[in-house]
Amino acid sequence: MPELPEAETIVRGLRASVLRQTIRRVEVVRPDILRQPKADFLRRVRGRRIESVGRRGKKVLIGLDGDGLIVVNLGMTGRLLPFPVVPRGESRPGHPAVRFRFEGTGLLVFDDTRRFGSVEVLTDSEWQTRSASMGPEPLDSGYTAGNLFDGLQHSRTPVRSWLLDQKRIAGVGNIYANEALYLAGVHPRREARDVRRQEAVALHRSIRRVLRDAIRAGGTTIRDYRNAEGQPGQYARRLYVYGRDDEPCLKCRTEVQRMVFANRSAFYCPTCQPSRSER
DNA sequence: AGTGTATCCTGCAGGC
DNA sequence: TGCCTGCAGGATACAC
In the complex, which nucleotide's C1' lies nearest to the CA atom of residue A117? Predict the structure, then answer.
């Protein structure tokens, strides 16, 4: 569920409560979300101090003193809830997977209803390798429309699938891929390599705009997403096409269509996003 | 290389 | 009310 803006919102909210905390005890309620044997995980995390909280793509990075970091993949329903910051009522559904208990009273819970998320501890060197296998950060100042256009050239996959591939661009998920394509006027099923330079420029702009606006709104809550204060994001009301099938396009009143490919729903306006580019 | 499909898992909405 | 189906912000593995 959470894409880049949701991960970013969580990271910002988490800093105040977990930075400089020392992990005293760890309870692994759901061992299946660990990407390594529980004993290894515990040994490498216990007693460590949290020195940084960051993000790469959709992943939340919890930097530890000395070498190493905890990498959290939120999956569809993952939440990082620091207590006692989060009001009691907000933890209601309650599918705790891992509890990090800090020295003193603090507690950070990774909660994940569907358990598609994962938690692992890596060395800095292991993380470097992992990070290098991921695509560029779309919000980095160094990420240009030219980079996007060049990347698209080599692929025949539908442009929506291209945007969802974390090895090609980091952090874009199904909501923001659909929104960005709508704003750029590009049909989600167009072959990536058929996207023209001018369209790539528009798409580059719309990806960055959508991600930045969504961060500003605290992310999109459809159902499960909550930030580190247990609160929903406000971007859902600003969506143009995602989840709006059968409703009128906000620009031209044509009915927004829903189409499934690569096992995911795509939403688009057939008028604003023609399936073939015009020459 | 790309795509369609299935899988992991739980919860919820809608139809009957 | 209850049962069934389909659907969900992700990621991966498989056969073709």
Answer: C10
A97: domain range? 4-132
Task: Indicate which CATH number applies to the domain containing A230.
Answer: 1.10.8.50
Phi-psi region of A172 (alpha: psi -120 to 50; beta: other; left: phi over 0): beta
Q: What is the tens place of the pLDDT at every residue in A199-217?
A: 999 999 999 999 999 999 9
What distance in Å separates the CA atoms of residue A137 and residue A159, rounded to the nearest whole number?
18
Shared domain for A158 and A122, answered yes or no, is no
In tens, the pLDDT along A45-101 reads 999 999 999 999 999 999 999 999 999 999 999 999 998 877 655 545 589 999 999
The total domain count for chain A is 2
Which of strand B's nucleotides are less than 7 A from any protein C-beta? Answer: 1-12
| Residue numbers 245-264 of A with CB closer than 7 A to any atom of strand C | 260, 263-264
- Same domain for A204 and A87, yes or no, is no
Q: CA nearest A44: which of A105, A100, A112?
A: A100
Report the protein residue whose CA lies nearest the C1' of nucleotide C7.
A265
